[in-house]
Design brief:
Strand content: 5-15%
Distance between the termini: 72 Å
Oligomer: single chain
Radius of gyration: 26 Å
Shape: globular
Strand order of the largest sheet: 1-2-4-3-12
Helix content: 40-55%
Amino acid sequence: MARTWKERLAQRTDPAWSEEIDVFEGQVELRRQAKIEERVFAETRLRRGVYGQRYDNGQRADGIAVRTLAYAEKPTKGPDTLWDAPGMVRIKVPWGGVSPEQLDLLADLSEEYSDAILHVTTRQDFQLHFVHIEDTPDLMRRLAAVGITTREACGNSVRNVTGCPLAGVCHTEAFDVSPYAEALMKFLLGHPDVQDFGRKFKPAFSGCEHEACGLVQMHDGGYVARVRDGKRGFKVVVGGGLGPVPRQAKVLSEFTPEEEFLPQMQAVCRVFARLGEKKNRGRARIKFLVAKLGIEEFRRLVDEERKTLPHDDRWTAYLENLPKTGSDPVRQAAPLGDAKMSAAFDEWYETNVYRQRQEGYAVVSLNLPLGDLTANQARRLADLARQYVGDNMRTTVEQNMVLRFVSEADLPALYEDLAAAGLAAPGAGSLVDVTSCPGTDTCKLGISASRGLAAELRQQLALKSASLPQAVKDLRIKVSGCFNSCGQHHIADIGFYGNSRKIDKRTVPHFQVILGGQWTENAASYGLAVGSVPSKAIPQAVEALTEAYAQGREGAENFQAWIGRLGKRNVRSLIQPFMKVAPYAEDPSFYTDWGDSREFTIGDLGVGECAGEVVSLFGIEVVKAESQAFDAQVALEEEDFEEAESLAYQAMCTAARSLVRTEFIDVTEDPDSIVSEWKTRFYDSERFFDKYARGKFGSYLLDRYASFPDRMDRDVAAQRVEEALLFIEATHACEARTSAEAAAAVEVVQ
């Protein structure tokens, strides 16, 4: 009897994976019949890597039509189910390793189930967009047959384990961390001790202390390779993270031997699961637990937990035969030679080729615009990999891909082949190589069009690249569509995150400008906001910043040092001319976002908003809050932590008062009165809550009002400043919603 395709795939698949997919398929069917609540099903599908996304009338933002719905009957519980609109599937790629066979399959899946685009993320994953929920079990089966899973790519779980794409070929690494990253992924995938987190947990590996590598300082758990007395091990850090309130990771262990790193991380996960916040998602990441307990107490708890762990042979079994994370070179090593090449090849070679420590071999970076790869390009790349490098191919956190163990003699031929496939763009890892999250294209949390802005910046900067000094070319630009930092804006030289302002009775897309983040030293420091600029003026602001840096830097001064020397007030003056928005009648372009001809809106807000004295009063008074928040940043920069914390709290109070005065003009400036009125009118009534943050920004004010910090240091002050900025943004959003609702009510009456 002929076997079905599912039976054939099952023979190539881990039986446990097959069983999990079968269970998920049953849950999908039950949800289709409305026999499982969406709230319950949501966590199930998220843990299988299936997200909801934005969807606009059956088309992508660029106008490409997507498939119609397969089911005639849809669940009726709410408009946000995935039967109302296709979603996104995130596909885990541990340490970025992908084979030609896997890439071929991904290309097929993108055409059959998606929009023929593979998107590389800032966590080395692949994402497929516009996928229908009923297709996901079959998609998962086909992935599982080539050793790929979507399990725990999303949800409150251990996310993809990232690692340096140069691991194993780098000149400065202690040792190749890739096999250890693979071991951690396999050990924690589906582990019972990682199923009860309040939020996600992101691990990363770095082979070097001082390069960018794995960016471990911004991770929930990070490993930096070290060798002590001839023995391999790791410096282990915990409690880092970006998002609305970024934190640097703290050192858990200066040296954990290789045989101890798995049980130690298991102990970390158990402590996090037991003591981490569960109710308030805004405080549920491990960074908040580490900050609350202090690293010394957290370390003590982990050490105690480690002593109680039942023995597991898997802790050390992997050491007997380290997981294979690549293949042998396909071609013999040979030098490039002295033949004269084209100018185009030379430009590409300068930015996209890294000479490995293995003599005669090089790493080639593919600069993927916005992290996108078409299905046809993916198939061509898979063929080129087979020809030149075999399985030595990886994704990167900069949304690119690399080919490793390219014989230097093959570089000219490979360049021509890549150019024919549209994959030979120069500028990898440079100013032109702008990183961006999906933003408003597909993300429900996106406020401004991060991909549209990134594409515009990329295009404009590419035209000027040849004339820019090397110091400017080496800068990193990263864009997020909202405050959540999926585009990693905090660690960029020049970063942006999406927000909005109401001007001339309309909502205008803006980006908050973040300057002075540090990419190197594994993301050693974060930038701070200096001002919000309308989206359409961002390219001019970037030009002003880069020109000022090129002309004003002293000697070999890097961008972070230059920003520090100028100070926040002087830096703000550089972008001040671009913060103004022309009235709609004079220049309506400000009121649309990049890549979208429609007038800008947020969520279900309409274009028209009510006018009047109250709106004007809010606009005037909230500026005071923004000024106080900026002064708090200056105080933080000057290491006056007490003043920074105090000013940040004042900024939140001022913003709350500006909102209260839209309804109660006589509220005093006393914090007791402000918080009481604001809490009653906006927080308790949930009017301050938006659809996604669910009031967590409001809790920043309430928590600070209820309790003065018991210590005062940089971390506390920096957290308060970040909270103040987010609270002010939430105040703007709340006032905009309130105005829109009032306008709608007036229209109904009329």
